[in-house]
Amino acid sequence: MKFQFIIYKFVKLQDVISAIFKFVWSKKAIDREKIEDREASKGEERAGTSKKYWPTSANPNVVRLSCELLRLFVIVQRAATIAEAEGGTNIEATHLERILPQLLLDF
Prior knowledge:
Layout: H1 2-10, H2 13-41, H3 60-85, H4 93-106
């Protein structure tokens, strides 16, 4: 919980989401490069492949939308946790009302 506080207080959530996207993209590029190197070492040279990778960036609107979806996921997850604790299977308005103080502190 303390880590969450630091993220929301000192860093924009959009910057965090953008950094996560960049990390995943670079990891996938490295994995793709390893696979291509393995295939090339087996003698299977594919036509039209290029070792040049263009830097990947996300549209700011996409990052904002991803942030909003993450916030909604957090809200639903917290409400679901309360519903499960009460033995229910559906999220009701009362469950959302109980997490409102947490949401005000988080966002």
